[in-house]
Amino acid sequence: MANNINKIDELFANYKxxxxxxxxxxxxxxxxxIKTSFDIAKALISNGADMIELGYPFSDPMADGKVxxxxxxxxxxxxxxxxxxFNFVARLRQISEIPVIFFTYYNPIFAYRTSEFADSASAxxxxxxxxxxxxxxxxxxxxxxxDKKNIDQIFLLAPTSDISRIKLITSYAKGFVYxxxxxxxxxxxxxxxxxxxxxxxxxxxxxxxxxxIGFGISSPEQAEEIKxxxxxxxxxxxxxxxxxxxxxxxxxxxxxISEFSYGIKSSLM
Amino acid sequence: MKYPDSKGHFGEYGGRYxxxxxxxxxxxxxxxxxxxxxxxxxxxxxxxYLRNYAGRPTPLYYASRLSKxxxxxxxxxxxxxxxxxxxxxxxxxxxxLLAVKMGKxxxxxxxxxxxxxxxxxxxxxxxxxxxxxxxxxxDIERQKQNVLRMEVLGAKVTPVNAGSSTLKxxxxxxxxxxxxxxxxxxxxxxxxxxMHPYPExxxxxxxxxxxxxLKELKLIDKFPDVLIACIGGGSNAIGxxxxxxxxxxxxxxxxxxxGLGLETGKHxxxxxxxxxxxxxxxxxxxxxxEDGRIKEAHSIxxxxxxxxxxxxxxxxxxxxxxxxxxxxxxxxxxxxxxxCRLEGIIPxxxxxxxxxxxxxxxxxxxxxxxxxxxxxxxxxxxxTISGYMSENKIV
Lengths: 269, 395
Fold this sequence. Notes:
By secondary structure, chain A is of the alpha/beta class.
């Protein structure tokens, strides 16, 4: 297993040849409940998702805006555990080969024990891990274990990152670099900073690595613009907003997210 | 070996577990602080404000009636007499001078009891800096006086209604604001916790407490056997303890908030009742469930009501250099009353935890010289005290 090519790397290699930009939706495991979140994942996959980012809910999501905070709160009420999350991914693996990125804060991983997390994540079929409060400086304690399992550790870059940070992070990065489009927390925004494009170019000048853009993206129009220079777009809050708006109507959650996903994918074609 | 190390670790604790967006700001602060901390002009300026504005040095008061009760020599370090009523101003004066020199135009802070919020609002007025304080709605309710104080000082107090609506949630919100406004804003952490370099710089600014005690004892030709301080995040405690750590023979006690009792799960004793984890930028002892979610803390003292503790305390707890133990809400209230009646000093409920610990080690301190850090005054706590007394039918 450890010698296989990582699915994330494989996808970006193929998309680069084809000149395509990947769509990576984000959802929280267990929001609004485990079953529905699994159905949402399935709906996203059949409506254009190229990878999927699964958020593991944490009690104190310091880098997240209101929408994802509330999503985590709903999931936490359902008492989602790490075992549930691995089970979720393993079931997803039975129906799809799509690359799975596991997104969380460090404490739940640390509490599970970092080495055991790497074993279980690999067994479940997780391809990448993004820990939002684990900058390169503190990343070794996780990296030493997931490297052995051929799981990519995804790192963030931000508008505040200067050239020395870009150099440092691209030297650590695997899979792709997640560029945070705005100086701020997660959440849909109507307009995005103009500096985004030049920043992505700056990163690519330093290292030829795929760059995904997330935080703030919410519309097909934005996606269509970004596809000209980025390798992936990541959308979270906008999708989760559909859950929040339809808490009493699960069919409508699936329907609205499917339509949205299809619209984003179409704009990237 | 000096702690923290160059990467901000105290052994396995501390560090910089934060979002990449904040890393440049943290590195800038670290570099700036490194350059300025031994700069003579900076030190003189800070000394000037500590002396002429804050009213330092604070007295080391021999509490004769309390000493008689415990048959020992008990000295109270009177941080309650510091301007704004607690030790918090020592830190905010230092950090505000840093922020001014870094050219920051806006300061944000979190507050629990409101003491750090007031101390932050105070220095922002003094140095003419825009100020926003994040405070849990539960704390706003129980510390109304301090909210008013912040507002008259010109600060904007932003209520935080998330999670337990106390200090940890206020800190989450402050960090979110900082992520958003990091280019212009200075984040003024109120305790010796959070991401490096905060635990180090807050400790350094609070160490004025211990340094003064050393001098004050020298004047009367005494040396302490025991030091006691209460622990929330632990800034008053590390401020007292740090200059004494090299004297191996001195025993030090950090008193955590035992709330309704450790066995009830309703407490704020991160070291005595928690385990190591990562929150708010540092690895340290935390109250958490088995899935690594942070638990709500409970203490009658809003300033101790936090599910974590500064990383340097976690480090010395494991090394057993400092002993950490707990005092319940009830014991703290008893000590509060005791100090009022015996010495004519109304202590903060936070500081009352340290006073209460005297009784727990009364056999050990017989004939010994004991320093208790009286970290703040209790004027802010009158409503809480009267509420507690009527709820528990105490007259």
